[in-house]
Backbone:
C-alpha cells in the first residue's frame, strides 16, 4: 500500500459517502454499463457503500444475488435469462476481487466465483466463448476467446486490452455486441500483472507486456478461423499504452484502436490519480517498497521513444479533461506516430469517457474492421474535435477554446523531437 493510500483513505471515504462512485470517476457508470454492469446492480452496490473498506462486500453481495437468480432460471430451462444474469454476476465478482491489492484468500475465492459464472456463460453460449490459458515465460497468461456463431473462416481478429483496473471479463458484453455480431473474432486478455495472470504469479515488468501481446498473437495465428494477416488490438487506458508498446514491438498487429491514451508517464499520472491506482500498479508489478517502485518502474515506463516504430494504422481518442492524461500529452504523443493515424478529442470528457462510452466502443470496433481491411493505408493523418453539442470539427483535434494557440507543452515536445 502506498503512503498516499494510507494517509488519504479518509478522503476516499468522504467522496464515496457523499458523492458515490461519480465522485471518483465522473460518468464512469455509463462506461461500466458498456462492460456489462446492469445499472440497477451498480446502484444497489453503492447504496451499500459508505467507505472504501465496504466495496468488496458490496460487490460480492450483489454478485451472489445475481448468480443465485441465474442458477434458478437455468434450472427452470430459461438459458438466455440465466446467461444474462451470469454475465452480470461475472463482472461484479470481478470488481469484488479487484478490491484487494494483495494475495488475499478472499481475492482467490471471488476470482473462482467469477470463473464459475464465465463457465456457465460458455456452456449456455454453445462454446462460442472459450477460456484461454497460455504458457508464457514460465508462467501463465489468461484470456477469453469469442467466436461468431456458425462456421467461421478467414475472419479478422481483435485483441481486447483491458485497462490497469480491468479484467478480461469486462469485455464479455463488448466482444459479443461489437465484434462477434459483425463476424469478427475477439480475444479479451489479461497480460502480466492483470487479473488472473497477475494473481497466478506473473508480475508486469518494463518490457514483458508487449511480449505477452506477441504470445496472444501467436495463439490467434494458430486458430483455423483467423486470418493471420488481419489481427488488431483495441485498448483503453493502460491497455492503450500496452497496446502501443505491443504495436511498436510486433508488426503483426495490423490495426490499433486506443482510447484514454497517454505516454505512460506513471509518475505524472499517479501524482494526480486516486491513491488506489498506484497501489494496484505496485501489486501488479510485485513491489512493496514505494521508493524502489518509483525509481525502477514508474520513472522508466514512458513510451515517447517507442511510438515512432509503429507501422499499423493507429486511432487515439481522449477526453479533453482526462485527469490522468493531459490532452497536451495525448496530442504530443500522436505527433510522434509516423504510421497512418487518427486523433479524436472529446469535449469536456474525463478519463472514463463515460459521456461517449457507447460511441467509442462501437466506433473502435468499426474503425478496427476498416483498418484491418486496408481502408486507411493511404490516409496519413485525420484529426477531429468532437463537441458535446454534436458538432464534429475536422482538421484539428485541438480544443476550440485554445483559439488556434499551441500550449507550451506541445511546442516543447515538438521542438525536442525535431532536435
Residues:
Amino acid at each position: 500500500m502506498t503512503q498516499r493510500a494510507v494517509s488519504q483513505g479518509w478522503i476516499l471515504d468522504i467522496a464515496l459517502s457523499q458523492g458515490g462512485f461519480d465522485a471518483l470517476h465522473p460518468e464512469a457508470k455509463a462506461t461500466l454499463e458498456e462492460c456489462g454492469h446492469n445499472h440497477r446492480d451498480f446502484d444497489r452496490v453503492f447504496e451499500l457503500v459508505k467507505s472504501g473498506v465496504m466495496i468488496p462486500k458490496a460487490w460480492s453481495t450483489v454478485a451472489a444475488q445475481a448468480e443465485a437468480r441465474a442458477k434458478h432460471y437455468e434450472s427452470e430451462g430459461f438459458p438466455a435469462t440465466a446467461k444474462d444474469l451470469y454475465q452480470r454476476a461475472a463482472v461484479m465478482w470481478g470488481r469484488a476481487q479487484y478490491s484487494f491489492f494483495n494475495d488475499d484468500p478472499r481475492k482467490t475465492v471471488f476470482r473462482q466465483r467469477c470463473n464459475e459464472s464465465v463457465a456457465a456463460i460458455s456452456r449456455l453460449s454453445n462454446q462460442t466463448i472459450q477460456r484461454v490459458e497460455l504458457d508464457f515465460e514460465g508462467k501463465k497468461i489468461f484470456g477469453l476467446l469469442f467466436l461468431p456463431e456458425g462456421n467461421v473462416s478467414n475472419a479478422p481478429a481483435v485483441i481486447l486490452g483491458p485497462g490497469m483496473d480491468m479484467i478480461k471479463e469486462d469485455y464479455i458484453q463488448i466482444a459479443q455486441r461489437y465484434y462477434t455480431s459483425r463476424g469478427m473474432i475477439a480475444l479479451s486478455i489479461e497480460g502480466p500483472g492483470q487479473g488472473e495472470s497477475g494473481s497466478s504469479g506473473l508480475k508486469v515488468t518494463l518490457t514483458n507486456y508487449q511480449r505477452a501481446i506477441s504470445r496472444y498473437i501467436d495463439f490467434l495465428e494458430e486458430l483455423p478461423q483467423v486470418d493471420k494477416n488481419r489481427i488488431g488490438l483495441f485498448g483503453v487506458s493502460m491497455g492503450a499504452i500496452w497496446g502501443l508498446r505491443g504495436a511498436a514491438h510486433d508488426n503483426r498487429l495490423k490495426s490499433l484502436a486506443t482510447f484514454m491514451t497517454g505516454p505512460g508517464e506513471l509518475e505524472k499520472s499517479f501524482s494526480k490519480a486516486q491513491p488506489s491506482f498506484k497501489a494496484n500498479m505496485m501489486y501488479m508489478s510485485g513491489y512493496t517498497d514505494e521508493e524502489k517502485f518509483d525509481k525502477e518502474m514508474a520513472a522508466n515506463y514512458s513510451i515517447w521513444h517507442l511510438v515512432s516504430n509503429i507501422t499499423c494504422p493507429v486511432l487515439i481518442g481522449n477526453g479533453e479533461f482526462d485527469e490522468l492524461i493531459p490532452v497536451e500529452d495525448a496530442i504530443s504523443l500522436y505527433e510522434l506516430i509516423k504510421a497512418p493515424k487518427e486523433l479524436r478529442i472529446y469535449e469536456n470528457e474525463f478519463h472514463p469517457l463515460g459521456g461517449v462510452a457507447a460511441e467509442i466502443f462501437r466506433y473502435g470496433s468499426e474503425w478496427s474492421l476498416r483498418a484491418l481491411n486496408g481502408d486507411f493505408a493511404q490516409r496519413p493523418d485525420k484529426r477531429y474535435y468532437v463537441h458535446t453539442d454534436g458538432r464534429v470539427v475536422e482538421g484539428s483535434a485541438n480544443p476550440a477554446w485554445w483559439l488556434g494557440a499551441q500550449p507550451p507543452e506541445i511546442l516543447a515536445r515538438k521542438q525536442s523531437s525535431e532536435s
